[in-house]
Amino acid sequence: MDSIRQNKVGRLIQRDLSEMFQKECKEFTAGAMLSVTAVRVSPDMSYARVYLSIFPSNLTEKVLETLAEKNKNIRFILGKKIGKQTRIIPELKFFVDDSLDYIEKIDSLLKQ
Q: What percent of the chain has a predicted confidence (pLDDT) above 90?
């Protein structure tokens, strides 16, 4: 179970990463539209799992590769934004949130 502090830092990172991908880091998205759906922070605040919803879904692999290559730059820009609120800027790992695809699959099965 996440602590209150973990939730607050996760929401802070989620908000700032969303703004970054919309405004400053468009070149990192490889032409896709990104949405940061959730951020889970480890108890020691040194590691963050960032879940992304990517549209169109056929660019998923390309976007994840680009984000993995540019991870240090993204973390640096994030550090400039949240450096005053947190002592440690967490290491970021990006994962695909495929819950929307799962919902569509279940919905289509129920309609059959």
A: 55
CA dihedral 99→53→80→69, nearest 10 degrees, is 110
pLDDT, position 54: 87
pTM of the model: 0.85
Cβ atoms within 10 A of the Cβ of 98, count? 14
Block residue for tokens 């490889």: 30
Q: What is the pLDDT of residues 34-58, one digit of tens each?
A: 889 999 999 999 999 999 988 888 8
Task: Please enumerate in sequence order all residues whose Cβ is within 8 A of that of 30, keeping only pairs 6 or more positions apart, or say none.
Answer: 59, 62, 63, 66
Homologous superfamily of domain range 4-111? K homology (KH) domain (3.30.300.20)
